[in-house]
Amino acid sequence: MSVRKIVKIDEAKCNGCGECIVNCPEGALQIIDGKARLVKESYCDGLGACLGNCPLGAITIEEREADEFDEQEVQANMAKAAPLPCGCPGTLLKSLAPAPACDCKNAEAVPSQLSHWPVQLALVPPTAPFLKNAEVLLAADCVPFAFADFHRRFLSGNRPVLVACPKLDAREPYVSKLKEIFRTAGMKSLTIVHMEVPCCGGLNALVQTALAESGATLAVKEITIGISGQILSERQW
């Protein structure tokens, strides 16, 4: 161990967008609990390829005592690591093989489970009556398109849904809206459903920040959806 250059992440600034993840060829960074983290010092070469790709300036280079960069260890880690499903969604197109369309005669008659309108987080007022004492779903914009059984699996039972995109939309209005909802709605629980791409995990960071600023306590469940339409993981906070 010696004094050398290595990345430093300001967690207060980081919103978990994932831009740094896809721009770290060594795989030294991961999104963990909604924040970018240095997973192992020996994976970071200290050259800072990730710096210019952080929109919030949350990553800097510092000089401190750290494990030496190990190129062989990095190569071994990269060889066994699963590739990102598509990196930043806007940087790589991907064609999927959809399942055959349902040939059921009554497929068009499947009823909607949506219990309210509007659904966009930006448009729903914190005082909306359907949020009171409810088990609320916070879904990333792309989830209903990727997960075919979205209505039955997530909306049945009159569950209210809020829809947002942590990648394309401004962060602060979302934090302010969620903070007011947490303060006033008296929600029973919150389920976050997001895609597996790194930037989509930014929903977790939005909720964590809003909860901390509101002073509210809430049971939170996180569900990750694969771009091929399957549930990859579920966990409770």
Report the span from N to C terminus.
Answer: 35 Å
Q: What is the SS-derived class?
A: alpha/beta
> Based on the structure given, which CATH architecture of the largest domain is correct?
3-Layer(aba) Sandwich
Give the count of structural domains: 2
Low-confidence stretches are none
What is the element string, with H for helices and E for strands? EHEEEHEHHEHEHEE
CATH-defined fold name of the largest domain = Rossmann fold
Radius of gyration: 20 Å
What's the main sheet like?
5 strands, mixed
- Please, how many helices? 6
Range of helix content: 10-25%
Top-tier CATH class of the largest domain: Alpha Beta
Tertiary shape: globular
The neighbouring-strand order within the major sheet is: 6-5-7-8-9
Please tell me about this protein's structure.
The chain folds into two domains: 2-80, Alpha-Beta Plaits (2-Layer Sandwich), CATH 3.30.70.20; 112-236, 3-Layer(aba) Sandwich (Rossmann fold), CATH 3.40.50. The chain is built from six helices and nine strands. A hairpin with a 2-residue loop joins strand 2 (29-32) and strand 3. It is globular and about 65 Å long. The chain has 237 residues and is of the alpha/beta class.
